[in-house]
Known about the structure:
Elements: E1 2-3, E2 10-15, E3 20-27, E4 29-39, H1 45-49, E5 57-61, E6 65-66, E7 85-88, E8 90-91, H2 104-110, E9 114-117, H3 121-131, E10 134-140, H4 147-154, H5 166-169, E11 175-177, E12 185-190, H6 197-203, E13 207-212, H7 218-223, E14 228-231, H8 242-253, E15 258-261, H9 263-271, E16 275-292, E17 298-310, E18 317-319, E19 322-330, E20 336-341, E21 346-349, H10 364-377
Parallel strand pairs: 4-5, 5-7, 6-8, 7-9, 12-13, 12-14, 14-15, 15-21
Antiparallel strand pairs: 1-4, 2-3, 2-10, 3-9, 4-10, 11-13, 16-17, 16-19, 18-19, 19-20, 20-21
Helix pairs in contact: 8-9
Bound molecules: glutamine.
Amino acid sequence: MGNAKTPGSTAVLVLEDGRIFRGRAYGAVGETLGEAVFSTGMTGYQETLTDPSYHRQVVVMTAPHIGNTGVNDEDPESGRIWVAGYVVRDPARVPSSWRSVRTLDEELVAQGVVGICGVDTRALTRHLRERGAMRVGIFSGEALADEASLLARVRTAPQMVGADLAAEVATAEPYTVPAIGAKRFTVAAVDLGIKGMTPRRMAERGIEVHVLPATATVEDVYAVDPDGVFFSNGPGDPAAADRPVSVMRSVLERSTPLFGICFGNQVLGRALGFGTYKLKYGHRGINQPVQDRLTGRVEVTAHNHGFAVDAPVGAPSDTPYGRAEVSHVCLNDGVVEGLRLLDRPAFSVQYHPEAAAGPHDAAYLFDRFVSLMEGQRA
Ligand SMILES: NC(=O)CC[C@H](N)C(=O)O
C-alpha cells in the first residue's frame, strides 16, 4: 500500500534474479511485491486491473501507452483492482473518453496500487520471456533503499507455485445474478475469482446464476437445485485447489452439466486425473489463436493463465468419468486450451469466452453450456 504521490519521483523495479529497472513512481508510492507477468492487450486495462485472477501479480503492459481512455465505472470486472503492482512505459497525460470519470493514475492512487512508469517495458518483457515469470518488487518514496536490501525484500515474497488464493478473492456470501428476460435455467457458479462479465454472459442466455463462495460444498451447490454447475477463473496454482477438485468430482459423478473457465479448466483437468504445470511466462492478452479441434475453427481469444493442464492432444484418454479429450489447443505453443468429456455433459476452456476485454469469437461456448442443459432436460 502506498501514500500520497510525489509526481515524477524515482521508482525502482527489482526482479528476483537481480535485474533492475529504474523509472518514475506511477499510482501509489511505496512498496509492492508479487510475480512479474506481462500482458499484451492493447486495450482493456481496466478489465485487466480488476480481474481477480491477477491477485499477487505485478502486471507489465507491453502496449506502450496506457490510461488513454481514463477510468470509467462500467468496465471493472470486480469491485476493486487486484493486481499487486502495475508497470507502464508511457502513461497518458490527458485521458480522453466520454465515459472517463477520472485518470488511471488517480484510480491507482485511490486504491493504493503501487506502480512504476518510464521503464523499458520491451526489455523487461524480453527478460521475462527468456528467464520466465519471477518474483518482483516495485519500490518508491520511503521504500527506496540500497539494491541489496531491495533484492532481499523481493526474495521474501511468496512464490506463485503452491499458492491457494481463490478464497482470498472470492465472494464471502452467495449472491444471485438474475436471468435477463425469461428464466430458463439455474446455474450454481463456484466463485474462484469470477469476473463480472461471466455471470452476465449466462444471464443474457436466460440463466439465473447463483454465485457461491470458493469454499462451497457439494451440498451448497445442490441446494440451489442447479441445471448446470460452473467453475470460474481465479488466481493461484491449480495444484493447490483440492477443495474445488473434490466438489467437481461429485458434480461429474452425478452427470450434472458442467462448464469451467480458466482456473475451472485446470480444476477439471485435475478432477479427471491429469496434472497441471506452470508455464514459463504464461499467456496474457486478447489476441491468442486457439483451435477448436472439434470443428477445426480458429478463434482469436482472450487469455490470462500462468498454469496449464498436462493432457495428451489426440486420442481420448480414459478417466474415472469416461473418455475425455483435449478440445482446444493454442496455436502459438500447443498448450491445452480446453477439455471435453465424451460420456458426460462436461467441458471447459483455459481462455476467456466472456472476453472482457477481447474478441467475442468464443461466445458460442456459453451456448454449448446451454445446449448441455437443454440436453439433460430432453
Ligand atoms: N485466469 C485464471 O483463471 C488463471 C488460472 C491460474 N491462476 C493460472 O494462472 O493459470
